[in-house]
Amino acid sequence: MKGLWALRSFASKYRKGLIVALLLMAAAGLLNAQAVYQTLPVFRGLFEKLASADAAASGAPMAELLRATLVLFCYLVAAALTGGAAMYMCEWLGQKVLLDLRAAVFGHLQMLSMRFFDKQRSGELISRINNDTTLLQSTLTGNLSALVVAPLSALVMTVRMIQISWRLTLLMAVIGPVVYLVTRSLGARVRRYSRLTQERMADLTTNVEEGFGLIRAIKIFGMEPTIVERFGDTAEGVRRAELRGARMRAANRIVAGILVSLALCGGLLLGANEILSGRILPAGLVTLVLLMQSVGHEISRLTRLNLNLQRAEAAALRTLELLDQTSDVRDAPDAVPITAAQGAIRFDNVDFSYDSQQPVLKGFNLDIAAGETVALVGPSGAGKTTVANLVPRLYDVQGGQVMIDNIDVRNVTQNSLRSFMGFVPQETLLFAGSVRENIAFARPEASQEQIIAAAQAANAHGFITQLPDGYDTPVGERGVQLSGGQRQRIAIARALLRDPRILILDEATSSLDRESEAAIHKALDSLLEHRTALIIAHRLSTVRNADRIVVLDDGRIVQQGTHEQLMAQDGLYRRLYESSAAQQTGIIQ
Known about the structure:
alpha/beta; ABC transporter transmembrane region fold; Rossmann fold; four-stranded antiparallel β-sheet; 21 helices; 10% strand; elongated
């Protein structure tokens, strides 16, 4: 159980609650055992004293029986109360640990670099945060009480059984190890099948996420039957994996039940011989049988507990795999925060690759002065977005340096570096909140006037005021209630509200109509003054007014200059520009 043991730190902060729970569980175990043993005085009164006509006539045995029954009732009530309290404390602890564990996993994932997320399916990560942690919580809270109560009850009951008849108790001593060996052999398989089930659940979560997230494309291409079939196949994989584990658990229960039943029946037969030999009284045999049944029940609980813990162990190992992931982009031990920035950017002989095999940038050099607006253009795969990703240090370079104001970005803290930057990505996704919340996301303390000013600058105020609830209108999951152009204008407003020194626009106007695009660029002309701007665009008409246009091809700069200078050259830029213009005007080259 190395995985579960490794997660003990999440429970250690609740030591007081854990101690209370353990005490309650211990009390419940002792009271359960003692309650069963207290049946001995009751049976003795029934079988031995009331059976005597003379004694029964005196009424004393009945009074003694009532007292014994009352004591038994008190033990049973006390056992129920402590057991219920222990169960609630275990649930309370489990929910607390689950909350901390989920927060720790989610927070840890947020700290990992983009390179990690490039290789992971979002459905897999969602499954690990939701399904794996829920399995851990349900297994531990549902079995934590049994983990203490069952062995303690079994131990105390066994001691009581020895007091009544050590010969009959030997039966349980023989059965116990056999049940343990069977459970141990099945436990490894249960853990393996449980891990397989969690992996299939991750596949299922991915299918669900894709089925809802890509619903428009699915309907447009008529892919509903294919998606439903794919979901059914994945769900069938989950079912098969679950049944494999269920077969192992069922086999364990059958074997344990048969062995315990053999012990019980053997105890009855041998008990009859013990009575005839005078070594035990009938009341003692009945109590011994009840104790034997209870011990068998506790052994069965322990075998089921072991198998459930094997399932939890598989989930714990998967969770630890995430917590053990380290970010390749980390603050250096001597990193210092940036307190002010002018916004000058320099790429000094930068080499970069996403997979350490196929280079994207090779010996890349570029100087951007503070306050300069530079447009990056080039064919798809030329490295434009990569350049933009390296400025806020979403990735680390393999060679060379990326510098802000002549300071290597690896020598400053990531949070302070990014606090001076605004970013509008090509794929604009909004959060499922209001328009106001989405604009103010990067600056929650912004006033309503500042939010409106940013929306006006992004040419978004007009359509926002026409929405049902204005700035309080929910945008829906991923902004589905808005058009693509509206989403991008809100994203631009969000970036502008931050008032960044460096503004990165990655295809930020690609989904806008001509009128909206023109209005935004007119606003940007004034807003970008005294700011460093890095603009990436395939629609080359949007970058004509840039201070400088840098043309990339295969990770290298092949041209740079103003629009007029580049158009005067017979180079890649002019070919790209003429092709872009032809596509926009509908002219077929």
